[in-house]
Amino acid sequence: MRNLWTIGMAAILAIPLALTAPAASAASAAVPPDISLANVKAHLTQLQSIATANGGNRAHGRPGYLASANYVKGLLDAAGFTTTLQSFTYSGATGYNVIADWPGGDPNDILMVGAHLDSVTAGPGINDNGSGSAAILETALEVSRQALAPTKHLRFAWWGAEELGLRGSQYYVTNLPAAERAKVKGYLNFDMVGSPNAGYFVYDGDNSDGVGSGPGPAGSAQLEATLQAYFTSIGVATRGTDFDGRSDYGPFISVGIPAGGTFTGAEGIKSSAQATLWGGTAGQAFDSCYHRACDTTANINDTALNRNADAIAYAVWTTATATPPVTVWQDTFETATGWTANPGGTDTATLGQWERGDPEATTSSGAKQLGTTVSGSNDLVTGRLAGAAAGDHDIDGGTTTIQSPAVTLPSGGTLRLNFSWYLAHGSNASSADYLRVKVVGSTTTQVFQQLGAATNRNGAWAVADVDISSYAGQSVRILIEAADASGASLVEAGVDDVKITR
Ligand code: PHI
Ligand code: ZN
Prior knowledge:
The protein has 502 residues and is an alpha+beta fold. The chain has 2 domains: 36-320, Zn peptidases (Aminopeptidase); 327-501, Sandwich (Jelly Rolls), CATH 2.60.120. 25% of the residues lie in helices and 26% in strands. It contains 10 helices and 20 strands. Strands 1-2-4-3-5-8-6-7 form an 8-stranded mixed sheet, with helices on both faces. Strands 9, 11, 12, 15, 18 and 20 form a 6-stranded antiparallel sheet that branches. Helix 1 crosses helix 2, helix 2 packs across helix 4 and helix 4 crosses helix 10. The longest helix is centred in the N-terminal third of the chain and has 20 residues, at 126-145. It binds iodo-phenylalanine and zinc ion. Zinc ion binds at residues 120, 128, 163, 291. Residues 1-26 form the signal peptide. Keywords: Aminopeptidase, Hydrolase, Metal-binding, Protease, Signal, Zinc. It comes from Streptosporangium canum.
């Protein structure tokens, strides 16, 4: 029955394939599939029918929720997953999480992929979050069709009672024994991925936006980069969305599990800049039916749903089939390892030169120099002392540089440079001020830049993760530059936990 209508819809709704090949993140990774939009929409039709037959919703404690859970579980069982219906009690009603394990892969290296399956009581919850539920369901079914044999163990989850405060995902994480929790190396979350007036948001795991919450646990930046790589490959611009814990990744990041995910927007209003970037209507909500009875199958943007379903499959395939990275070199700056300040002898800064040490905190209209490091008590910092005023040991008068000892990179494979950073400045700064990171080998490449601006920017640790594979086989040095290059202004920078992996 299901196969008949699935094939029928696929024939009618056949969509053009995006032929641009996403950048492979590991040579050994299997080719990610194109997820069938028709199949994803067929699941949404089923969830809509379930709501319609059960009082118009699929909310926690209502019959439409259990029917939704049984629909998902039935398909996964038939596809060869090992499934469990995990029950919990919230607010006097029984809730359920559907957990589905794909047999095989490294049991000590688990990638989880989740979406909340419950709706609010006001409506059927097709965009929120039938969309994420259906997209990960179809991805799981494709894993089965392709008999994927990933390096990592894959576990999918459909959460109950998200709308009442992340109850199902919190229950799962809380009740996972510590030894089992330690095996979960990453979590991908998809909550609202077909919004009618869509935006293309990726969770800001590296805090590159510097807004709201800080970076996610180490590894979150890589998950963000992987999802971004897919959108880049299809020519769709993305923006970050703060890692504020407003969906089921919250309980995971709060126990230190790296997470990532995408989002097409809820009750927020699309700005005119966003409408220029993505199309759609400025001044209107991304989803004007958010938490309303009109969140039906009519409340879905097919293009957004299709792109996100393909992004999910891309992230699952590349993450789960990649060989785990090996650390080639790292420096946490707790001890001296041979960094050289002003290696070229051309620095012009008169104060606030880079040094390794235990930084003192300064504030001026918010945090400027951070007194807290990412690990241990030392980092690389532009003038570690605070002084009497915030402007006492900041960068003044030009550029300051510091260079790592020589690092011999192995030949071949994907090499990534990962580090924590911040740039802080007052509103008296300008775009002539900056923090830059370069790789110096047979050629020199700038791999990172954060420019200043004539606005206040507080110090906040963020993570950068860049591909330096083109330097494989070379002896390289990492060069860090910062500048207060336009008149006197308050500029501070820090770097910690520099790491190269293969
Ligand atoms: N979880 C919220 C909506 C939401 C989804 C908010 C994703 C943020 C993000 I990222 C809800 O279900 O109402
Ligand atoms: Zn919701």
